[in-house]
Amino acid sequence: MRNELAKLTGAKLVDNAPLTTALCDAGGGGEDAEEIRTKIDKKEKDLATERRSVFRGWLKNIFLIQAGLSMALSYVMATNPDALFGSFSWYNNISNMDTSIQVLGFWWWWLFIVPSLRSRRPSGMEKKALDIAFLGTPLISLLSPVVTKDTGIIWVANFAVVAGAYGFAFLGGEDDDADGDKKQPGWLKFIYKSLDFGSGRERGARK
């Protein structure tokens, strides 16, 4: 389109020079040139949005490593916080600090692990799995203490919810990016769309 604009406006292009819109537009050219300018402007805006919304591979890997480290850290917090904080005076002097850290350990699933995985901006069935996990893990963390006070078991229950969400999404064989999304009730679509804020799409790409 830039080459065509250059022909219509009589712009002189320099060999081996970057082919920018400014160099290809010498002004004028009539309605045909104006139509091409409009198309070029739209394409450039679309490309700018796309660049903002696409993650580099290394950044996705960082989020994946972060999720893995958070999983290991949270398990130790939930089962044996003494191994991590036993040498600190504040840990031994503050009442019930061990219990607080154990509770934080199983809440880590909802606070850090699942959000880290969702920050990779997955799509299709993986996105569906993580949306379910993001809704399921806080429910487990809130309701499980009624049944058991063992924070290690509650951590495992959160793990089971996340694993089960992946199994349900992938074995179900229905991609919510396709027709499956149309079958969902409106309130569930609203919740899933809300979960996309800051992790699924750039704000500029929303429609």
Explain this structure to me?
The chain has 207 residues and is mostly helical. 71% of the residues lie in helices and 0% in strands. It is built from 10 helices and no strands. The two termini are 26 Å apart.
Uncertain stretches of 5 or more adjacent residues: 197-207
Number of helices: 10
How can the largest sheet be summarized? none
Please state roughly what percent of the residues sit in beta strands, choosing from under 5%, 5-15%, 15-25%, 25-35%, 35-45% or over 45%. under 5%
User: N-to-C terminal Cα separation, in Å?
Assistant: 26 Å
Write a brief caption for the model.
By secondary structure, this protein is an all-alpha fold.
Tags for this entry?
single chain, 207 residues, mainly alpha, disordered C terminus
List the helices and strands and how they pair.
Layout lengths: L1 H8 L11 H4 L5 H24 L3 H23 L2 H4 L3 H5 L3 H22 L5 H24 L3 H22 L13 H10 L12
Helix pairs in contact: 1-3, 4-7, 7-8, 7-9, 8-9
